Structures are given as structure tokens and as C-alpha cells.
Amino acid sequence: MRSICGACNLREMCLPLGLSAPELEYIDRRLVAARRKVARAEHLFRSGDPFESIFVLWAGSFKTCLFTPEGRGQVTGFQLGGDLLGLDGIDSRRHQVDAVALEDSVVCVIPYEWLQDLANEVGALRQQLHRMMSREIVRTHNVILHLGSLAAEQRLAAFLLNLSNRMQARGFSATSITLRMSREEIGSFLGLTVETVSRSFSKLQAQRLLFVRNRDLRIPDPRRLQHLLDGVETERES
Amino acid sequence: MRSICGACNLREMCLPLGLSAPELEYIDRRLVAARRKVARAEHLFRSGDPFESIFVLWAGSFKTCLFTPEGRGQVTGFQLGGDLLGLDGIDSRRHQVDAVALEDSVVCVIPYEWLQDLANEVGALRQQLHRMMSREIVRTHNVILHLGSLAAEQRLAAFLLNLSNRMQARGFSATSITLRMSREEIGSFLGLTVETVSRSFSKLQAQRLLFVRNRDLRIPDPRRLQHLLDGVETERES
DNA sequence: CGTAGATTTGAACGTCCTCAAGTCGAGTGG
DNA sequence: CCACTCGACTTGAGGACGTTCAAATCTACG
Predict the structure, then answer these.
(1) A198 touches strand D (CB under 7 A)
(2) Quick one: pLDDT at residue B237?
(3) pTM, two decimal places
(4) CATH assignment of A5-143, given 2.40.128.20, 3.90.1570.10, 3.40.50.460, 2.60.120.10?
């Protein structure tokens, strides 16, 4: 295998998206310094670590957590294949969050210096970097909206629908998903307790909006689940 | 006045931060296409508008709001002088949030094409753009943490302390602040109702942690207010 | 002064949290 | 194969906090 990015099945949703063939060839092996395995529950980086590289999640899944100096903490996002990790460190040159693998995973290591240089030479790469940072900003604004305006069941529904959409965009089923995170982690992300998450799962299942068994999830009709967020009245069980 | 950025009192916290004198001279008048006045309660842009420019808040203050297609909506941030507006539009080429002036304000209009070109030529400018995007990402992660893990009074305290710090960074008093946003807007941002915000103000005032009259706010001792977030026991009134 | 909008306060209610117990599932060793 | 154990998850009961609804108060401005 001569190339890394050129032969990667994620290149349609990764940093090289939009690059011409010659550009792609040019950056190949100049962007990714290495691929790094991260075992389940291991940290890719921790808050406070010096920032040196951006990471692209190549296989597996991650969570990012933010802690206050006093110890309060929370999951601030879940990452799937093609998502970037480490953008939080660019400003202060130190990572601001923890990144933890939810399963055995592999990331592409992109030294930030290399990225800077290549972004300088290849306009399409710079553009794509900006787009992905912009996307993360929009994502977090949507999380804020959900945390601030939705009730427990709706938050869970919004989270699962978002996950469903992202899985589908990656070529997986939108209706049959294996959750890689615990109820605890879902609760932390949604600003709810484990108990409330569990109860919300049960209530949604009682309405036949989803079926969940351990970490296997099925969403028979995503549109019906979406109605829960649109404020559309769903007929109660007669 | 020959220059715009070179003579701007915000250049120490704006995009040109870190540029050498020659670089600053070079970008001057090549970065900012115009300064645009936005009257109180007017939109700078709306969700769905075509994205063409980034804006730097030069004078005044803004809020950004995000709405769902169904009409639920929420304030996702407040911007002060030197803050960027419009980064949300880079990815999709359409703005994803509304930006509304909280008072009569002035923004510097930076056409995104110009910014791209200049960022290409001036490495320090590109670096600073990346830093400011990274900063917005970190900011939103912190908002998520606050929304997910803090009680009402703590949220308000965290919000006011953050505002205090940002005012101080801009050369204003950290202890005496005029709020530019309504209780309603604060509540929306914090995921609380107006009534709860009002009650939280009253309770904090009863503890003498702050004094508020209409939109004039005084925080006699920010550290004591900070204790509320650190989980430090504050002596109750005997 | 009078009005409209913003803010504060009160009272009742509901959602979600806390505490507690019980269930389930995977891995381990008998 | 089964019993055991530990952690993850579920379910229940009671209580706390924030919301909802309602009314009073305040402020800005004509």
C-alpha cells in the first residue's frame, strides 16, 4: 500500500474531502504521521496534555469529557469514524478535554505542524479543515439547544436519532444500532441521571418507538421518533 | 485614518493578534471590507442566509440563537467586542444561527474569500483564525458542561462570572457590569425560565453574593461567587 | 399620569433526582 | 454445567427543584 489517505474508505468524509486527484496524491503520506491503536477505555489524550496533533477517528468510537478543576465532569460528545479529535487544543496549545475510546479503536495522527504546512499549500485542504471546525461548532450549538429546551425523553430521542443519522452517513443501518456507550455515559452527555435514561428507554419502548435490549437498539420508524421532537401528538396506546 | 486594523483598539484580541508590524500593514484594508452598523434588536444574519462573510464585533454586543424547524429556540451565546460571528456558516455555506444585536452595535465585515486568500499568504493570520475557532469550540463545550451539571443558581453564577471575566479582559470593570440582555434571554441561554432566573438573582442577592438593580449588576467579591461553583460551603445567614 | 413591557413574587404542580432494592449478563472457578 | 460474583442496568418510592399559572410591581417613555 503506497498511500494512506488515497486508499482510505473514509476519505469521503475526512479531511481530504474535496481534494483533486493530484492534490490527494500530494498530501498522501505527508498528512498522516501514523496510525495509533487505542484500546477500550484508554485515553487518547487528557485535558492539560500538550497539543501536538489532530486525530481522525479511523475505526472505533470515542467520547470526549470535560471536567472542572473541582471534579465535576461530563461527556461533551461522542465521535464516530471520520470525526476529528483534538480541535480543542489549538487555541491554548493544550488539550481542554479528555478523549477516551469506547471500544478498541484506531486513529490517524496528524501533526498539527504538518497540517498547517499542507493547508498552506493546498487550498482545498485548508477549506476542508475550516469546514470541519465549523461543523463542530454547529454540532455543539445544537447540543446546547437540546440540553436547554428538551425534556428527558426528547433528549434521548434526539440523541438516538442523531446517532442513527450519523451511522447511516457511514454506511451502517439507521434502524439497527449497537450502542458503544453505557447508560451512564448517555446520561452524562444528556445531563440526566442513569435512572432517568433507563426510564426514558423503557417509556419509548412502551410506545413502540424503539426496542432496546442491553446495547442493541432498533428504531423501527425514525420518523415516528422524530415526531416526539416536533411536538406532534402521538396516539397513546388504546 | 489610513488603516483599519492597525489603529483598532481591539487588535490585541482580534484576528490580527500575533501579526508582525509588516504583516499587519499588509493585511490592513485587505481584511475588512466595511464596518456595518446594526441597531438594537436587528439581525446581522439569520439562519439560512447565504454565508459570505465573517464578522468581528467591534462595538456593542450580540446574541446568537438557534431554532429548530418546529420553532423551539434558544440563545446559544452572547458576544462581546472582539468576538467573531458567523463561523457557523463555513461548513454549509449558510448561516445556521441567528445573530441579533443586543444594543446598537458595529461589526467589521470580513468577506470569507478575502480571509481565505489572506490566511493563505499570512501564516500568523491563519493560525489566529484557527485559534479563534478552537476557542469557540472550547467555549461551547463549557456551556454544555454547565447546562448538564449545574443547578439554577450555579448556572446563573457561572454565567455572570464568565461575563465578568470577559468584561475585565476588555478593560471594563469585573465587579460592576451593565447587563445588555434581558432576564428572558439569560434564561433561554441557561435553559431556565424567566421566573427561575429572577428568583436565582434574588437568592444570590440575599446571600450578598451580588447586587442587582434592573440591569445594573455588582459582584462585590467574584471569588465568593466562584465558591458556589466549587462546592465550597458558604456560611448561611445566622 | 398612563400604558406596555419587563421583572419580581407567590402557590400548586410535575419532572427529574435521590436513595434503595432488585434484575440481568458476562466472566470465573468449582 | 452450574454457582458465584461483579458491574451494568432496571424499577420503585419519596422528595427536591424548577416550571407553570397567576398576580403584583416596577420602568421607560410618550
Answers:
(1) yes
(2) 36
(3) 0.95
(4) 2.60.120.10
